[in-house]
Design goal:
This protein is of the alpha+beta class and about 210 residues long. The chain folds into 2 domains: about 60 residues, Orthogonal Bundle (434 Repressor (Amino-terminal Domain)); about 110 residues, Jelly Rolls (Sandwich), CATH 2.60.120. Helices cover about 20% and strands about 25% of the residues. The chain contains 4 helices and 9 strands. The chain has a 6-stranded antiparallel β-sheet, with no helix packed on it. Strands 6-5-8 form a 3-stranded antiparallel β-sheet, with no helix packed on it. The radius of gyration is 17 Å and the shape is globular.
């Protein structure tokens, strides 16, 4: 999934790439060394830094873990750590946005560091599995709540699960999964992942490859 090249990037992708480069250079790392630490190819990392790629959340998480930074730093926020009474308020439409193919993601609570949960609001614009490359799969568990529209969640182990507004599903993240909108309009969902090492957000598969 980490090789999807977009056309010359929009401002958000360019800004993200610039911050990735700054984080790498701040540690005096070459592209080659950083690519090994992050577990992504040198060419992929270079495309991200130059704003030529809209990276998947999987790639973003690998960069975050490899460079030992907080994901909020890549979106221009400075995460805060508090010993007690932790809280993070995100006003409507004020989350950090990231787009990848059939998902328009709004990351929530990005000003809080070292979270046990990764919450995001997603508009699912993909209506078929053809829009994506691979299963979403990682350690931990996930919770999906449909805000509007309807969704079909595909899984390696279970029959496709159809969800309408107000329905929710809690599942093992290690099982390959994928979601598409089955309503005429794009579906909107609240999606949360929990893990000590979150390595991939929701993704979908290319049905022609399975």
């Amino acid at each position: 999934m980490d090789t999807h090249l977009t056309k010359p990037a929009d401002t958000s992708t360019t800004d993200l790439g610039r911050r990735v480069r700054a984080a790498r250079q701040a540690q005096d790392l070459t592209l080659e060394t950083a690519s090994r630490l992050c577990g992504v190819s040198r060419s992929t990392l270079s495309k991200v830094e130059n704003g030529l790629m809209s990276p998947t959340f999987d790639v973003l998480q690998k960069i975050v873990l490899g460079l030992k930074i907080e994901i909020g730093e890549l979106f221009g926020s400075t995460p805060k750590v508090s010993a007690s009474g932790r809280r993070a308020l995100t006003r409507k439409n004020e989350g950090q946005r990231h787009a990848y193919r059939g998902y328009q993601m709004e990351l929530l609570a990005t000003d809080l560091a070292h979270k046990a949960m990764l919450p995001f609001r997603i508009r699912i614009s993909a209506h078929t599995l053809d829009a994506f490359d691979d299963w979403g799969r990682h350690e931990g568990e996930e919770f999906l709540y449909v805000i509007s529209g309807s969704v079909c969640l595909y899984s390696e182990l279970y029959a496709p699960t159809h969800l309408n507004a107000g329905d929710s599903l809690y599942f093992d993240s290690r099982t390959g999964h994928a979601a598409v909108s089955t309503s005429e309009e794009d579906a909107e969902v609240l999606w949360m992942a929990t893990s000590a090492d979150i390595t991939q957000a929701p993704a979908a598969i290319d049905a022609t490859k399975k």
